[in-house]
Amino acid sequence: MKTITRRRFLAGTAAGAAAVATGCATTPPRDPIRYRLGLSQPADSPNAIRLQEMAEKVRTGTNGAMQIDVYPSSKLGSDNAMIDAVRKGELELYLGGNVFGPLVPVTEMPGLPFTFRNSAEVFAALDADMGEHIRGEMLAQGMRMFRLGFDNGFHQLTCRTKPIRNADDLAGLKIRTPFQKMTVDFFETLGAKPSAYTLNQLYQVLKEQKVDAQTYPYGIVVLLKLYEVQTYLSITNHWWSGFTLVANPQAWDRLPRDIREIVDRHADAAALAQRKDIDALNAGALEFLRGKGMIVNETDTSGFRKPLAGFYARWKQVYGDKAWALLEARVGKLV
Q: What is the C-alpha separation between 201 and 179, in angstroms, rounded?
């Protein structure tokens, strides 16, 4: 039996995705426009690979008139720093995960625990009316959100010290969360002790045992090699998360219309291809992680759900009646 390596596993999932078509600009070449695109995920992640592919297709499709330089692995700073740079016009493009909530709380809503059942349901909402509402809120905070989102998948729990078998195992657990009040509130409601750290700090804080556990989908556990610093993987599927590609609105508006159309088209194609990559990555992740020595169990999440009536009521007030109505139209009555 062949040893499953991270490189072979990631290469296999990336190779399985369909190629996207290249469009050609109808206008003659002009002096090149050069924009930067930052993200915190590693260079071998589906996110970075598909964005690099998008950049190449934009360059080809504009006959060299538009050059997008992709900077993965937080090369342009932390997520919070890149968001700030986009809003100030110091960075043109950025792909972020669960990091927009402090500025735009409604971006957290698709990830409310135990609402959506799968990524297809989430994207049916985000590619339509719910997404339009979120895009409006993002634009008001200085970020032009592209139409189609990238996937991350449903979150599981990993822990260094013990498996999470039921809600009782969360009591007093030191767990890392993203910088989202909603995620912190969820774990505090269940008796855990959450601490917020950025993605580029995650591996180190786990290694240094500042926290014992973390919440992310299978793919992030693979990509960030969290199996090196975590022993147990508990299957909870407690909430969904994704990634959002944004542009500085002024930088976007400066682009000629034909170039905007080409970038939009290839950004959409990159998002759709990345979603397939994540499906493939998550499908093979458990076998890979078991091969790396992680101990896997399925968690009884019934106790996670008991306190959520009050939790939902609190967050309905934060997100607002309009946003909440869009959510309940998709997932049913929550409060």
A: 12
